[in-house]
Amino acid sequence: MHGIMRSFIIHMSSSTARRPNADELCADLPNAELFEAVNGRDPEQIAGVQLHPGNLHRPHYPFPLRPAEIGVFESHRRIWRKLVDEEIDLAIITEDDLRIDPARMAETLEVLAPVATPDHYIRIPVKQREVSVQTLAEQNGLRLILPKVIGLQCVCQMVGRHAAKRLLAATEQIDRPVDTFMQMHWLTGQPIHALLGSGNQEVAREIGGSTIQTKPPLSDKLTREFKRAAYRAKLHLHPQRPRTSSG
């Protein structure tokens, strides 16, 4: 592992209900600090964002971007830029609704230490659903894998400086949420790994609800599910493939 590991917790200071959890993450993660989230509802804060209606890349994204999703994407981009500008080799980036098990996170970092480089983007997801095409490390029930299809959510990840630079270049214009975009490894040139078994949880409901979810009527919900399944099927046409040790 290169340099000092930094941690950034994306938090909007107006979200007072989430502040205690964000502070706890600051105390538990290495060299952590709060990072002010971008408010996607504030035209001034997203003035520079070039938005498209889901048609910038294939497969086309079937849903309009919500203000909260624009804010989340821009927040991640600002941290990627910070990594590049300040030459931070590796950072843990989390959202403020993450709950970690500090002892388990210490073991997680121990597994990643010999492996992670500035070229890596490693998800430390709350949902353990990804199917492995390659296992890179295994220890104490923790497994670092290259998933066939990259999972959703950006609640917690370890991001390297070179990965951040690649992702910044690929996201000068956006047309879908950040986690959905990250699945498109064939576009970004950025392989995405996942560390399973970290014990990470998402606690949005306990600390004042999700900043993104709203309850749609049932007919809309079924239409969304249908569109989502069709979109997911297209993603499966682009699996990640094992890399040779030299690659």
Give an overview in words:
The chain has helices at 19-28, 67-85, 102-112, 161-170, 178-182, 185-188, 218-235, and strands at 6-11, 32-36, 50-51, 90-95, 98-99, 121-123, 132-139, 142-147, 156-160, 173-174, 193-196, 201-202. The longest helix has 19 residues, at 67-85. With 247 residues, the chain is an alpha/beta fold. Strand 7 (132-139) and strand 8 form a beta hairpin. Helix 2 (67-85) crosses helix 4. The chain has one domain: Spore Coat Polysaccharide Biosynthesis Protein SpsA, Chain A (Alpha-Beta Complex), CATH 3.90.550. The chain contains 7 helices and 12 strands. An 8-stranded mixed β-sheet has the order 2-1-4-9-6-11-8-7, sandwiched between helices. A two-stranded parallel ribbon has the order 3-10. The radius of gyration is 17 Å and the shape is globular. Helix content is 31%, strand content 21%.
What attributes characterize this protein structure?
Spore Coat Polysaccharide Biosynthesis Protein SpsA, Chain A, 7 helices, alpha/beta, two-stranded parallel sheet, 247 residues
Oligomer: single chain
Helix content: 25-40%
Strand arrangement, major sheet:
2-1-4-9-6-11-8-7
Tell me how many strands there are.
Answer: 12
Secondary structure class reads alpha/beta
Q: What string gives the helices and strands in order?
A: EHEEHEEHEEEEHEHHEEH
Shape: globular
Measure the end-to-end span.
19 Å
For the record, the CATH architecture stands as Alpha-Beta Complex
